[in-house]
């Protein structure tokens, strides 16, 4: 009888460990099988096991991109808050942060990651620590707090470098660091990190991130005012028709083709992108395409459309685009000696 | 003279506060590059 009681407990602990490993290695089928198995014992779990189970369940649903059930699992975990150890608190805030990040609520995500960081010293696993710094660095990147993003990306690289099995995570940290150096205008270091990432993604044959890195290299060469080089990487990225970033690729391609005096190719990329932004109801990209077109093809309406576009970005709190387009418009007003308008847009560029 | 200085400081404070307040409400900073999702999966293909 003693055996009957102890065996399932040992088994459940082992299955929880297997589940955790399956989730981290993205073994979706194995993770789903273990989930079903564990669910059948849920009424027999101790409080500690239940907390571990619900926190892991939130990661399990995240892996499947099921954000609703992931949030439900977090809420379930919170009902045991009084019994939480520090390490549970770390995983809870981490999971909350990931959810906010996924919804592009970067400020909220950062608050959660800061709470989780308080308990980071409880973790023993270097890779998990590296993953944490990578997530926080990604959040700082989108909040445009570049120096802190670079600092956390460096800590992620240091933590992940010794582990060949986790080359994928190291590549993501290298890619992020390349983007940070791009924002810091250190283009040589940016190029170095982005190429390191590209080599790693090719090593592990990850087509998805090869495309992402090609987009980012394209962006680097756009910023370095080398549109011919940008086109090479962007055309490579365009081939995979990766839904999530396809509009960004088309935008940069249209820009680069206009700059290299290939208006018909530019119009082709612009038309595809503008139409797609309308079809998918992506208002931000719709404005960006419209503004790009006015800049190169319809100068009569350039000022008015850019003013309206910047107003739209202010309305939706897209401060990155407010700064980006205001700076360019301010330069235009300075060149055309419209100093009052230039001042207005320089101020907006500095928010 | 004192009134003018005070008014300038007040206006400056209001401008700075509104700018800082606006920046703190930042939710959607869409950059031109891409980092992929924050959900790390080692075999992520889409």
Automatic annotation (TrEMBL), chain A:
Pfam families referenced in this protein's UniProt entry, alphabetically: TPR_12, TPR_8
Superkingdom of source: Bacteria
Gene3D superfamilies named among the record's database cross-references: Tetratricopeptide repeat domain
Name of the protein in question: Response regulator aspartate phosphatase C
Source species: Terribacillus halophilus
Automatic annotation (TrEMBL), chain B:
Superkingdom assignment: Bacteria
Protein name: Uncharacterized protein
